[in-house]
Design a protein that fits this description.
By secondary structure, the protein is mainly alpha-helical. It contains 22 helices and three strands. A hairpin with a 6-residue loop joins strand 2 and strand 3. It starts with a strand and ends in an 18-residue tail after the last helix. Helix 17 runs antiparallel to helix 18 (about 310-320).
């Protein structure tokens, strides 16, 4: 491959071309022309005469859009050399202007899969309007239609909502998949009615995509308005359709609303929905809240945790609250076989991270944790617990007296 080098000047522009190996350069002439556009035309003639690849010149023009001659570049989009087509497309995108983008978009109508993929990639990089030129291309293959939908999705252009909805009925599965994926990026609250209807009739495969589109359509509303809107819709449909709306309800509800939902599902013994509600409730607990507040929420979650895995997750979260009461709470589960390791680890983490957490309850729980902790890290964790117990013993010998019995406020007086 030969490499073309250009040294632009206001009056004279020097040109050099490498040998085929690209290791040595030789002077190829000088273009005497005022103005960068005329200089570029002269450089192009030298490149052609010297056999330098068009790719080199295209790269140079792409870096100098003010002087680039698109009349030279556009025909190269039809080159039989894939590398030349790619260089021409990128040069046109860098130069910009609507006509150039339309020329690149025209590649979406190609039967060549590589050209369609190239056009999608190049158009996504362009900051201006690419959706209209892409949609305007006629005779697109399924890949071209899919690429167009991907561009509309990437630009979140709601003006093409009707087109996306039309493609939901495509006979080509790839096009249909792309249309459902794009739906969330072109939907607004004005489309909620049609989205509800679509959710209630579409194939199960596409239900999550429509649910995401409904959430996106409500994004301009407040969280409380979203929750009320979707709850009202859920209540208005037949019982066999209500499950379609629950995932959206869970994502729009706040912590207190989710707590009420979970308690209601416990009362109804609806374990199928309760598992999903539990997950939503756990996600709603903000890690930035004070540890004591989070502990109360995790205790609520334990009340409607169904599986051992969910209960273990609660205990693992309790271990991150950095609270004395977290030790006491986790300790309640240290004799439950399925939860024993999680409970013991929570006691260990909370106690060893806070030397001020002292008292007979803590000591007893640490001793029990040291007895039951298993696993590969036990060889490090158990000695660490024993070392911590020794520190606590020394503190107690120096006169440390716990002020809290870990159960209630006996002995305390209000001011």
């Amino acid at each position: 491959m030969r490499i073309l080098a250009v040294d632009y000047g206001d009056v004279r522009t020097g040109v050099a071309v490498s040998d085929p190996s690209g290791l040595m350069a030789f002077g190829a002439g000088c273009v005497r022309a005022e103005g960068m556009r005329k200089a570029a035309q002269g450089v192009a003639e030298i490149a052609k005469a010297k056999g330098a690849q068009a790719i080199d010149l295209l790269y140079w023009m792409g870096q100098h859009p003010a002087i680039a001659n698109t009349e030279i570049i556009v025909p190269l989009l039809s080159s039989k050399c894939p590398a030349t087509v790619e260089a021409a497309a990128w040069a046109l995108a860098r130069i910009g202007n609507p006509d150039n983008i339309s020329n690149v978009a025209a590649l979406l109508g190609s039967a060549d899969a590589e050209k369609v993929a190239l056009a999608e990639k190049v158009l996504k990089s362009y900051k201006g309007n690419v959706c209209q030129p892409a949609v305007a291309v006629e005779g697109k293959t399924a890949q071209g239609e899919t690429a167009t939908l991907n561009l509309i999705s990437a630009r979140k252009d709601a003006s093409f909502n009707a087109l996306v909805n039309e493609q939901l009925n495509s006979s080509d599965n790839a096009v249909k998949d792309a249309a459902y994926k794009a739906l969330k990026d072109v939907s607004t609250k004005d489309n909620l009615g049609s989205l509800y209807a679509l959710l209630e009739k579409c194939d199960a495969k596409y239900v999550p995509a429509v649910q995401d589109a409904i959430l996106a359509a409500m994004s301009s509303m407040s969280k409380d308005e979203q929750f009320k809107t979707i709850n009202a819709r859920k209540a208005s449909v037949a019982a066999n359709k209500q499950n379609l709306y629950w995932p959206i309800v869970f994502k729009t509800a706040n912590n207190q609303q989710l707590l009420a939902i979970c308690n209601d599902l416990v009362a109804k013994k609806d374990n199928n929905l309760l598992s999903a509600a539990f997950e939503a409730y756990m996600k709603s607990i903000d890690n930035k809240l004070p540890g004591a507040q989070r502990l109360l929420m995790y205790r609520n979650a334990m009340g409607f945790a169904i599986t051992d895995a969910q209960k273990v997750r609660v205990l693992q979260s309790v271990a991150k609250t950095n609270t004395f009461l977290g030790i006491i709470y986790a300790g309640q589960f240290i004799e439950v076989p399925a939860l024993q390791q999680a409970a013991a680890q929570a006691v260990r983490v909370l106690a060893l991270g806070n030397i001020e957490f002292n008292g007979p309850e803590v000591v007893a729980l640490l001793n029990r944790a040291a007895e039951v902790i298993k696993g590969g890290d036990a060889i490090y964790e158990v000695p660490a617990i024993k070392q911590h117990l020794e520190k606590l013993a020394k503190l107690n010998e120096t006169g440390f007296v716990t002020m809290f019995n870990g159960k209630d406020l006996t002995g305390w007086k209000g001011l």
